[in-house]
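Blinded run. Sample ID left blank on purpose so nobody reads anything into the name before looking at the predicted structure. Input follows.
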Amino acid sequence: MSVYIIFDIEITNPTEYEDYKKLAAPTVTQYGGKYIVRGGKNETLEGEWIPNRLVILEFENSERAKAWHDSTEYAEAKALRNKYAKSKAVVVEGV
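Blinded prediction complete.
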């Protein structure tokens, strides 16, 4: 069953955040993931949630998604994300 990691990212330093994007993308591919959503316009339909930058990644299973998130390959990119943005993330099973 596919799983999705959903990030809500508030970028605090857009210029430096570009380095994160360059480093992160190859690691997603390396772990068999792919981008479903990478930024783009969003619109709240219900409730008070006002997301910032939404990123949705698809992986073949939860183990692979978490392996990517915790990997040494992604560590440098993750450190940049944590330095130049505030993030919330969840992993959710698909149908």
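Unblinding after everyone has recorded impressions. The radius of gyration is 13 Å.
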